[in-house]
Amino acid sequence: MDIATRTSTIGELQTSNKRLMMSNAGLVAALLIAVISIFMQDKIVIRQIPGMPTNAEVRKSSMDVGAQRAILLAVTSNIVQVNPSNAHYQKMFLQAFLAPAVYTKVSMEIDAKAKLLADQRELGSYYFVFREYQYDPKIDKHFVIGEVHTVNAAKDTGEPYVFEYPVHVDNYRLVVDDIVSYKGDKAHNASWLEGQKR
Predict the structure, then answer these.
(1) Up-side HSE of residue 61: CA atoms within 13 Å toward CB?
(2) What is the 3-state secondary structure (H, E, C) of the chain?
(3) Labelling 22: which of 8, 50, 124, 157 has CA 20 to 30 A away?
(4) How would you write 124-147 as a 3-class SS string?
(5) Cα diameter, the chain
(6) Which residues pair with 171 in a beta bridge?
(7) Contact 167, 72 (CB under 8 A)
(8) Residue 171 φ/ψ, nearest 5 degrees
(9) Using alpha carbons only, what angle is made at residue 26 by residues 20 and 27, rounded to the nearest 5 degrees?
(10) Any idea where the domains of the chain sit in the sequence?
(11) Which tens digit of pLDDT belongs to each residue from 92-136?
(12) Which CATH architecture has domain 65-197?
């Protein structure tokens, strides 16, 4: 065997090994980057609510205003549309969006309203007509303004109402921390509260 040929062949093998080691190291680095980026991924759409914008962004601890608006409109409509036949469904829907303490309070109010309507043999229905949505970053509250309509055999009456919601986003889910509703069409936002101090 020729020593010169053998030496050049070993050199080629060493060069080839170095190239393979470098390509393996590059693949490991690329795989590591891919795994880290998957774990760090923060933009996931979990559910689509009617009225939610197509390009709504839902993140682990934040949500764009369009998505929050759609969810709060759905919550408001379900709070208003309670009757004896759908009370159980409304509670199940609202449970997905309300904080536990708020859900307990609202659930008891829904049961009481359904019982009252059943005792009165009220066959009417209720629905919400949306007029305006506001978000006040100063006090970090959302306001859904509209009319609560009561429909029965004799008439359809509507009263202006404001629903006030402090919320937060937890694990891709909007959580309503409290619900305050009052008659009228003026939201009790920061400028309204400032006017009350004078």
Answers:
(1) 0
(2) CCHHHHHHHHHHHHHHHHHHHHHHHHHHHHHHHHHHHHHCCCECCCCCCCCCCCCCCEECCCECHHHHHHHHHHHHHHHHCCCCCCHHHHHHHHHCCECHHHHHHHHHHHHHHHHHHHHCCCCCEEEEEEEEEEEECCCCEEEEEEEEEEECCCCEEEEEEEEEECEEEECCEEEECCCEEEECCCCCCHHHHHHHHC
(3) 8
(4) CEEEEEEEEEEEECCCCEEEEEEE
(5) 111
(6) none
(7) yes
(8) 55, 55
(9) 90
(10) 1-41, 65-197
(11) 999 989 999 999 999 999 999 888 888 877 666 788 999 999 999
(12) Roll (3.10)
Confidence of residue 171 (pLDDT cuts 50, 70, 90): confident
Phi, psi of 53 (to 5 degrees): -60, 150
In order of 58, 77, 100, 130, 176, the CA distances from 121 in angstroms are 43, 22, 31, 28, 32
pTM beyond 0.85: the answer is no
Contact 146, 130 (CB under 8 A): yes
Structural tokens at position 150 = 């009561």
Residue 25 CA: distances (Å) to CA of 17, 43, 98, 172, 197: 12, 30, 49, 36, 67
What confidence category does residue 39 fall into, taking pLDDT thresholds of 50, 70 and 90?
Answer: confident
Please give the residue that has the higher pLDDT: either 92 or 151. 92
Q: Round to whole Å and give the CA distance between 12 and 141.
A: 71
Are 133 and 158 spatial neighbours (Cβ–Cβ below 8 Å)?
no
CA 145 to chain centre: 19
